[in-house]
Design a protein that fits this description.
Oligomer: single chain
Number of helices: 13
Shape: elongated
Structural class: alpha/beta
Radius of gyration: 21 Å
Largest sheet: 7 strands, mixed
Number of strands: 9
Distance between the termini: 65 Å
CATH class of the largest domain: Alpha Beta
Helix content: 25-40%
CATH topology of the largest domain: Rossmann fold
CATH architecture of the largest domain: 3-Layer(aba) Sandwich
């Protein structure tokens, strides 16, 4: 592109549409605003046409990435969750709005020490710590890259003194008990993984999405050990995949945990299960 103007935005939108991007106009605006550092709606056409070329060049680079189906969050390295912005990259799963139902349920009663099993970006760990100032959290993950990103977000919110990060294969390096264990484990089956959108399949960490199994192995692993790490009356809040409710419920029937609640997502589909150690 040699000439930069408001028409460049229209051209970028068309390019994203041709690339198969679901919301090309919205994505064009978000990427342009990330380069501009302000909302585009505060500018008129003449002001847009006088924006410096270096900003347009940066915008062009971002559009090229989005044409390759890289998600906006991965491009700008930021993703919002529970009203806060978190650092993300291709090594961690982007926080999803539907996962906020786990936070809502966790906050429905008091807890002291808690475990975020599979901490990823740290969005659950950080959010619970900020919302519950008296709580102490442990975040575990098998991926050292996730531990690094979670550490960045912990630093961002000034929470270093109220939590600990542990590189752990499920419970292998966990040596204490908790009032609450919260987890969004990999639950995509091997077959389902091949049908995912390019944004997910190529730019999200595979290990956070699937164990290349039937989509239930994570639950089997958690169910086999979780009771040992829960205090009496402690809760396990765990996210589940679409269509996996009955299978996950059966897996946990073999434990000493009692199913207490089923949490729907924004579409009314069961997104999380709540178990209690009684």
């Amino acid at each position: 592109m040699g000439t930069w103007s408001s028409d460049t935005l229209k051209s970028a939108t068309l390019r994203l549409h041709k690339a198969g991007v679901e919301n090309p106009g919205y994505d064009t605006t978000k990427l342009f605003e990330s380069c501009l550092g302000k909302r585009i709606y505060s500018l008129n056409k003449e002001e847009i046409d006088t924006i410096p070329g270096k900003i347009w060049s940066s915008f062009e680079n971002l559009i090229k990435l989005r044409e390759q189906r890289m998600p906006i969050a991965k491009i700008v390295n930021e993703k919002e969750f529970w009203g806060r912005s978190f650092h993300v990259n291709t090594e961690v799963l982007d926080p999803r709005p539907d996962t906020e139902v786990l936070i809502e349920e966790a906050l429905s009663e008091e807890f002291g020490q808690f475990l975020d099993l599979g901490v990823g970006s740290g969005c659950l760990l950080v959010t619970l710590l900020v919302e519950k100032p008296a709580a102490y959290g442990v975040g575990s993950d098998i991926s050292p890259s996730c531990i690094r990103v979670a550490g960045i977000n912990i630093e961002r919110f000034g929470l270093k003194d109220r939590c600990k990060l542990v590189t752990s294969d499920w419970f292998s390096e966990i040596n204490c008990n908790f009032d609450l264990i919260i987890s969004n484990p990999p639950y995509i089956s091997k077959d389902e993984y091949e049908t995912l959108q390019p944004e997910i399949r190529y730019f999200e960490p595979k290990i956070a999405l699937t164990l290349e199994d039937d989509g239930l192995e994570s639950y089997r692993k958690i169910a086999s050990e979780v009771s040992k790490y829960l205090n009496h009356n402690g809760r396990l809040i765990i996210e589940i995949g679409f269509g996996k409710y009955h299978q996950v419920k059966r897996i946990f029937e073999r434990t000493d945990l009692s199913l207490e609640n089923e949490i729907p997502d924004l579409c009314g589909i069961t997104r999380a299960l709540v178990f209690r150690k009684v």
